[in-house]
Design brief:
Mean pLDDT: 77
Number of domains: 1
Strand order of the largest sheet: 3-2-5-6
Radius of gyration: 23 Å
Shape: globular
Number of strands: 9
Order of helices and strands: HHEEEEEEEHHEE
Distance between the termini: 83 Å
Strand content: 25-35%
């Protein structure tokens, strides 16, 4: 039975040229786990919240696109934690290129079906430290990727002059 469905899907991919749309779909469930459990997590694409998981663990259903997703989690008593969930190529994308001659890839690329995200996502929240600012208690309405700290170069340390053996 499973072999028959697989063969039918491959046949459909060849005829229709959209393997990812048929096999993997245009949406994806992403499982969110937090340590400790019970956090609220927002999924953000291009700074806008696209889904929320309350009281982790839980599942969010998202439309697949070429844009990556930031997952940000908050819990009272903890610092906000985030995870960069990079949009990657779905497995059926390669079937499109090989079997469909690129037509299927173009169809799936336009719909986002040729992309996928990591799942499950596991996020660890760090407890608040006395004397430090407390983490947020609620999810932000929008979330931008944290900017990396500027690269620092170590101070130049003079090297001892080479010695020659006599």
């Amino acid at each position: 039975m499973k072999l028959e469905r697989t063969m039918a899907a491959i046949g459909g991919c060849i005829l229709l040229g959209a393997c990812s749309s048929i096999i993997e779909g245009r949406s994806q469930q992403i499982m969110i786990n937090s340590n400790p459990p019970g956090a609220d997590c927002g999924l953000y694409r291009q700074a806008l919240r696209i889904a929320t998981v309350q009281n982790t663990p839980g599942i969010a259903l998202v439309e697949k696109t070429k844009h990556s997703i930031w997952v940000a989690c908050v819990k009272p008593g903890y610092q906000m934690a985030s995870y960069y969930n990079k949009s990657g190529a779905a497995g059926a994308t390669f079937g499109n290129i090989i079997l469909g001659g690129g037509i299927g890839w173009a169809i799936d690329s336009a719909s986002g079906a040729d992309n996928k995200y990591d799942s499950p996502v596991n996020i660890t929240l760090v407890p608040n430290v006395p004397g430090q600012p407390e983490g947020p208690m609620t999810l932000p309405a929008s979330y931008m990727a944290p900017t990396p700290a500027p690269a620092t170069t170590p101070e130049a340390v003079p090297m001892p002059a080479p010695t020659t053996a006599r």
